[in-house]
Design goal:
about 0% strand, globular
């Protein structure tokens, strides 16, 4: 795969296009699910807006340090257009945005089951923009390694010269497969009524360790003891996500004495 055959395609505009496509797909999937359940109203629309706005803000703020370090004359417009974005920052911002909007409008019903498959689908589509315009990953001896030629390498910011012509991990392809697989799994779980109101937490809990492992082949610079900034963020995030998920699951289970009173049929 020589440069993925993308020498004629643009960088930032192409990346932005897939981000917009992913966002649009996530919005449509969310609205379709809410309409199917007959719960779509102005309050859900406000939650969707809060998720998108805070998600976009979180995605930008997470890479603000990198933009300021790179640019000699930084500006707000420059940050928006060429500052990049972070999926982890976007997820965190979107989650915070939904919580804040719920409190603002007094909405108490669970919405994670509506958001989870939509977000997984949207990120999966958006990652195509990363695959087509960024450094694919670190060198690999695997047969599916992606080779970037000198022409395309010159259009990728920060591409290591030593990696030109070397097979590289298609790390974004790994993520695309993960998010699409999670979207399918989450839809199946939701249709069966499994883990009700916990699917978004399940998605985050699955993505966090997966992303930690993918970071090992992403080619991102290590900043502390061989760990990237994303990994340093995920080290405390993973146990916190696990604690929140399993604590909620434990509280959702009926006490043992209640099961005993209901009899064998309840088990």
């Amino acid at each position: 795969m020589n440069g993925l055959g993308l020498d004629s395609l643009g960088g930032a505009p192409l990346h932005a296009l897939f981000v917009l496509l992913g966002t649009a797909a996530a919005m449509l999937a969310f609205a379709a699910s809410a309409h199917h359940r007959r719960v779509f109203d102005f309050q859900l629309l406000a939650l969707l807006a809060g998720a998108i706005l805070c998600g976009a803000l979180g995605a930008k703020l997470a890479v603000l340090w990198r933009y300021l370090d790179r640019e000699t004359a930084p500006s707000l417009l420059g940050l928006i257009v060429a500052g990049g974005q972070s999926v982890l920052g976007g997820l965190s911002g979107a989650y915070a945005g939904v919580i804040a909007t719920k409190r603002l409008i007094g909405y108490s019903a669970g919405t994670g089951d509506l958001f989870a498959p939509a977000v997984a689908l949207g990120i999966g589509i958006g990652r195509f923009g990363c695959l087509l315009t960024e450094t694919p990953g670190s060198p690999t001896g695997a047969r599916w390694g992606v080779v970037v030629d000198a022409g395309r390498a010159a259009r990728i910011a920060g591409f290591p010269k030593a990696w030109i012509g070397v097979p590289l991990h298609p790390s974004f392809a790994y993520e695309i497969a993960f998010h699409f697989a999670m979207a399918a799994l989450l839809l199946r779980l939701r249709s069966r009524g499994a883990l009700r109101d916990e699917l978004f937490k399940l998605y985050c809990l699955a993505y966090a360790p997966f992303r930690f492992l993918v970071e090992m082949v992403r080619g991102n610079p290590a900043v502390w003891h061989g760990l990237t900034r994303s990994q340093l963020f995920l080290i405390p995030a993973i146990p916190l996500l696990a604690l929140a998920f399993f604590a909620r699951r434990r509280n959702a289970l009926p006490p043992l004495n209640a099961l005993a009173e209901l009899g064998p049929s309840a088990r």
